Amino acid sequence: MRKVAGLDAHSTYVVVTIVSNDGGRVAGPHRIRNEDADQLVALLDEHAPLEVVVEASGSWPWIYDRLEGPEVHVVLAHPKKLRAIAESNYKTDAIDAELLARMRFVDLIPEVYPKPIEQRELATLVRHRARLVRQRTGAAGRIHGELHSLGLSLRRGELLTQAGRRWVHTEAWPLFGPEQQCLIETHERLIDVLTEMIRGLDRRIARIGREIPAVQLLETIPGIGAYRALLIVSETDPITRFPGPKHLVSYAGLAPVSSRSGKSVRYGSIPAGANRWLRGALVQAALSHCRFAPDSRLTTYYEDVKDRKGWRIARIATARKLARVVHAMLRTGEVWSLA
């Protein structure tokens, strides 16, 4: 008898229901606190072998690491795609847990690849850097806001340079009020602290990247450094889980949604359920590539699409082509070539 456990996970507890392939409820619903994980393991072992379906929320890593084994197979469900299938006006933890189990029997669970702990560590590293950069950008934005309130402006990134700081403290400083000056000094100190943290992470990323052949391979592409290469690898490894380049393009959210009706085809926006980390890395890498490799075919393609359809469409289209290049390189091990 095949059995599936649906597990509705929360920050402090989980609700589990076990269902058999004859439609009957074997056990549950049981509400178990996270600190009592041994009770959850004992319950599942009692009914093993079985599958456990859980949404890929923030709680999935400890659940997967604790439960996955020869007799218990953990299936991660894509939360956004799952909601599109199982949206209901009557939702409780018990209903959600049982619904997960029953949907597994009829192959309606959109699965997510469970990254092993080593890969999750790499993802944590590069995402940590990205968030620090975002915080630094926010701090710089506050200073830009005070400049704008006086009708002044600096080009993007100049606040991170000595010349930009000097201009603020000489030309603009007398125009600021005391509280504005305090705000600017506070945010400048914050920018300095964040910059030092980011540099430290960059050194660590470069050191780790030198030990990973796939990262070294992607760094041969102009516009992709250690940070973006490690981010791409942390989100796509192993590349064999993408049978073809179109699968990687779709995973990265670079293939627009299409709606077909008769002979009419409409293209919509990028799907919201895609991997936004990978998408952002590829889009930024494509733009950097165009600056560092003006003679490459990718750059020529970008300029052609930009002239016809504008830069917004061009950057996504070029990132889509870059994703195909990345897929081919990681599959074959061949380095970047301008030819």
Describe the overall structure.
By secondary structure, this protein is of the alpha/beta class. It folds into three domains: 3-112, Nucleotidyltransferase, domain 5 (2-Layer Sandwich); 117-211; 214-332, no CATH class. Helix content is 56%, strand content 14%. The chain is built from 13 helices and eight strands. The chain has helices spanning 37-46, 60-67, 79-86, 93-105, 117-149, 162-172, 178-209, 213-218, 226-236, 245-251, 276-292, 297-309, 311-332; strands spanning 3-9, 13-20, 25-33, 50-55, 72-77, 111-112, 258-261, 264-267. The strands form two sheets. A six-stranded mixed sheet has the order 3-2-1-4-5-6. Strands 7-8 form a two-stranded antiparallel sheet. A hairpin with a 3-residue loop joins strand 1 and strand 2. Helix 5 packs antiparallel against helix 7, helix 10 (245-251) packs across helix 13 (311-332) and helix 11 (276-292) crosses helix 13 (311-332). The chain is globular, with a radius of gyration of 25 Å. The termini are far apart.
Q: What can be said about the biggest beta sheet?
A: 6 strands, mixed
Strand % is 5-15%
How many distinct folded domains? 3
Shape: globular
Query: Mean of residue pLDDT?
Result: 90
End-to-end separation:
57 Å
Rg, Å, rounded:
25 Å
Q: How many individual β-strands?
A: 8
Helix and strand pattern = EEEHEHEHHEHHHHHHEEHHH
Helix content: 55-70%
Helix/strand-derived class?
Answer: alpha/beta
Strand arrangement in the largest pleated sheet: 3-2-1-4-5-6
User: Spans of 5+ residues with little confidence (pLDDT < 50)?
Assistant: none
Per DSSP, the total helix count is 13
